[in-house]
# Entry
Amino acid sequence: MKPQLYEYYTKHLENGTFVSWLAVDDIKVVGTSGMSFVEKPPYYSNPYGKIGLLSSMYTLKEYRRKGIAKKSLDRVVNEAKDYGCGAVQITASNMGVLICTDYGFKKNEKFMKYAF
# Structure
C-alpha cells in the first residue's frame, strides 16, 4: 500500500483535490484528518456535484474528549464549503459515528457498496 498511498497523496495534494490537517501539541502530532474532493454529475440537493470525502480522521486516545475532533470537523466543513461542495461524506468507526452525529452529520441508509 505504501507506493499507492505515496502516489495518491503526491498527486492529489499537488492538484488540490486532497487536503489534510494535523493537530499538534507542542511538537507532538496528536490528531489528523484529511479530505478528498470528488465531483459527480450535479443533482437537486448538490447543484455543483462537488463532495468532500472525509478520511483519515484520528485523535490519540489520551487527547480525546478535548475538542480536537470538533475543531477538525470545523476545518473540514469550512474547507468543503470554500471548495464549493454541497456535502461532506464520511465512513466512520463506531466512535466516529458518535462524534459526527453530534456534529450534525446524518446517516444515509441508501448508501450501498459493491466490493471486488
